[in-house]
């Protein structure tokens, strides 16, 4: 019942976000963007980038390729979230890609380790090539996820939750805030405000594991645009 209740809660959170009436496009919040951020990146395979930014939502715009040899790049962010699947580029050609990252503390599971402050990107794949990177704080519709270990941002391989892989399938005008936590059930999220630590509001909900209403605090779901493939 706990696993079924968790799955139901995660589904309800996603459906509530995806069926909101108003579509709000991503827009800048007036924060100075990190223009050509190559100076914040090191290495070649993988390429590791770090940006000293405050918690928030950030759009990352990449220019991949441009080398004398063909390239193939995949990107993860923060706690191993898959932001971009393996993306090939021909020799001498470039490919533009963008995605939106939820930066928060802790960056993974709500009860897990705090992680590294700021925004971390890892560009891996068969032959990663990065020509430029730009990071800008934006305001976007956001999908909130609640669940257990099957959903959460798992910190180490070979484990991964499905919420950890979801961002790669979304356009950059949507962000994913994955609050799933290993071992939790739907009642846990109703009872423990720490599992939804940001943007709290008071709400009354009925757990699938309890027939009595429970008052809890959780973030609101921002109205979202329809999902479209990359």
UniProtKB/TrEMBL annotation:
InterPro entries named among the record's database cross-references: Galactose-bd-like_sf, RhgT-like, SGNH_hydro_sf
Coiled coil start-end: none
Family: Belongs to the 'GDSL' lipolytic enzyme family.
Keyword Hydrolase: yes
Bias type Low complexity, positions: 197-230
Signal peptide: 1-22
Keywords: Hydrolase, Signal
Domain of life: Bacteria
Keyword field contains Transport: no
Database matches in SUPFAM superfamilies: Galactose-binding domain-like (SSF49785), SGNH hydrolase (SSF52266)
Molecular functions (GO terms): hydrolase activity
Name under which the protein is recorded: Uncharacterized protein
Residues covered by region (Disordered): 181-230
PANTHER family registered for this protein in UniProt: PUTATIVE (AFU_ORTHOLOGUE AFUA_2G17250)-RELATED, RHAMNOGALACTURONAN ACETYLESTERASE
